[in-house]
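Ticket #4471: structure output looks truncated?

Reporter: J.K.
Steps to reproduce: submitted the chain below (401 residues) through the standard prediction queue, then opened the result file.
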Amino acid sequence: MPASRITGPDTRDRLASLTGLRFWAALVVVLYHLSRLAGKLPLISDVTWYGRTGVTFFFVLSGFVLAWTYDGKTVPATVFLWRRFARIWPLLAVSTVVSLTVWRVLGTDFSLRGVAATLGLVNSWAPGREYLVGGNPAAWSLSDEAWFYLLFPLLLMLPLLRSARGRTWCAVVLFLASAAVWVSGSLFTEPSLRVWALDYFPPTRTLQFVLGVVAGLAVKRGWRPPVGLPVAIAVVVAGHVALVPWSRAVPDSLWYSPYSASHLLSAPLFALLVAAAARADLEGRRTGLSGPWTVRLGHWSFAWYLFHEIVIRALLGVLGRPVTQLETARIWLLTLVVSLAVAAVAYHWVEHPLERLLRRAGPGGARRAAPAGSRDPDGSTPCEPHVPVPGTPALEKKSVQ
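Returned output as attached by the reporter:
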């Protein structure tokens, strides 16, 4: 990590609708896993059969929020990285312990190497199933996020991202690169290797994160998306509905199925959605995504994402795989209720307290403690602005009221 400084957050800005969107993205991922692991339910499973695109949404959102939050002020890169570690690792560790306990109770073997790779945030760099599943199958995405965090200070130093024209060209190139990655799936003869390279490999997913960064910088500097939030939502929903006939025509095992295309090609739609929601918040328009309960569920979404598959696994181990539609519906309902309850407890008693503790104990934490309960849109507590270091290239800041 270079000894550069990255920009720091403006604690006055709050994009509550982005927090609300996190809940809906997590819900799509949960329904995807329920459909694949517990059995299908009519209509819902058809639309969410490729709900893994919710992870793509989170990668885009992560880039957007970090760019929005850190553009215009300076924070040492070491402080930034410690805060991101405090944000994701404590709950990762706790959920991994719970996951291993469930596997042990159910008599299922697991790989210690995979567990170590998961806790080390490097498991998605290896194609073996023992690494990708690791201690917690949902945790592969955190390995990708850790890679994004390492790149982020360098991204904000790129001259290309400082102009509207440069950001436009960057967005076009990122989409074309994503399409090229999808087409490159035809070169793989081993399906499992193709899935790893296109779906898990951090450099592949970096394209989605960088697109989020581009969108975040653009909105921060005054860009207005070409459509409003209702249209952006409709476009995302229509994109998922369009996958239904495609999935019926092409098996997932083939490279030109919607399996990889659904998340590799959906990033621009999610960038549009996030930008439209942020712009609506900035202009003071009601979105239906910023209500108290929606925001609360959004705060729980990270814990929900990490624990829901564990709950599904435990329920199937105890109750057995459902046979009838009624049994399937019961598993779905139990999973939604139990996993949300677990997420609420994990957020309030593990995730938030441990994050605050680590942030205070780490670099920069002693200067000023964040107010209790205050959260940025990505779920992390605000950090204090710092005086820019002379000679450090600073990005211009355009305030949007």
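Triage note (M.O.): checked the attachment and the full token line is present. The first strand starts at residue 5 and ends at 6.
Status: closed, working as intended.
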